[in-house]
């Protein structure tokens, strides 16, 4: 089982920055419309394991469909850094766009397929 690591990252222009603790044991490869069109791959972390370090005032929130997930993107470069939502049991969760982690190589991560298109 992978060990938890403290990771940093942010948007393309660097105005939005975060730090989180996760093991990246599950990274999604979802086929829903937004993940497909934006090329998103999420790792889900508990809110207490995610800290927004810079750029809170530089975020734009996007809601669609059932308005259950609050997608957060940088106002300047447009990169979606994370989203806030709830698991099916109601537990709060942060969906971290793993492509925003400093030094990440997506090709080296094991992706878990998620059929969001047919939910």
UniProtKB/TrEMBL annotation:
Residues of the CENP-V/GFA domain: 7-115
Keyword Cell membrane assigned: no
SUPFAM superfamilies: Mss4-like
InterPro entries: CENP-V-like, CENP-V/GFA, Mss4-like_sf
Protein name: Uncharacterized conserved protein
GO molecular function, one term: metal ion binding
Family: Belongs to the Gfa family.
Family annotation (PROSITE patterns): CENP_V_GFA
Keyword check for Metal-binding: yes
Natural source organism: Bradyrhizobium erythrophlei
Keywords assigned by UniProt, alphabetized: Metal-binding, Zinc
Lineage: Bacteria, Pseudomonadati, Pseudomonadota, Alphaproteobacteria, Hyphomicrobiales
């Amino acid at each position: 089982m992978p060990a938890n690591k403290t990771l940093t990252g942010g948007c393309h222009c660097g105005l939005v920055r975060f730090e989180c603790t996760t093991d990246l044991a599950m990274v999604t490869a979802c086929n829903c419309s937004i993940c497909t069109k934006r090329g998103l791959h999420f790792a889900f972390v508990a809110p207490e394991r995610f800290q927004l370090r810079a750029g809170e005032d530089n975020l734009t929130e996007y809601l669609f469909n059932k308005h259950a997930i609050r997608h957060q993107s940088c106002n300047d470069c447009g990169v979606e850094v994370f989203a806030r939502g709830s698991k099916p049991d109601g537990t709060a969760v942060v969906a971290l766009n793993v492509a925003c982690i400093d030094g990440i190589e997506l090709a080296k991560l094991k992706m878990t397929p998620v059929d969001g298109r047919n939910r």
